[in-house]
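Input (structure):
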């Protein structure tokens, strides 16, 4: 396997009102990050938060090209990133002891 050294191009944060970041994903335009009680969309060029969705968000975050997925409180929620509406909810595999989502 070919390996190479990673280079940090930019660092972001701290973010007002966020004690920690619990999940991160990229939708092709914005970086979405989970901070416990919300998902926030950040413009990676400026580092500015563009908008937030009030939703439990204390574990993994993912984007499948159309929807956001967020783990919190023993559930995985499928979210419309445009409206912030939860479209579906299923139990998470670890029943609340989850830490990541890919």
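Output (sequence):
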């Amino acid at each position: 396997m070919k390996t190479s050294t990673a280079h940090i191009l930019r660092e972001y944060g701290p973010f007002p009102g966020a004690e920690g970041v619990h999940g991160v994903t990229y939708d092709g335009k914005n970086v979405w990050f989970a901070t416990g009680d919300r998902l926030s969309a950040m413009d990676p060029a400026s580092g500015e938060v563009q908008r937030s969705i009030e939703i439990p968000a204390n574990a993994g975050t993912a984007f499948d090209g159309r929807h956001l997925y967020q783990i919190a409180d023993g559930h995985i929620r499928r979210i419309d990133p445009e409206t912030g509406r939860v479209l579906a909810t299923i139990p998470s595999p670890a029943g609340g002891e989850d830490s990541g989502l890919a």
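Notes: The first strand starts at residue 23 and ends at 26. DSSP finds no helices and eight strands in the chain.
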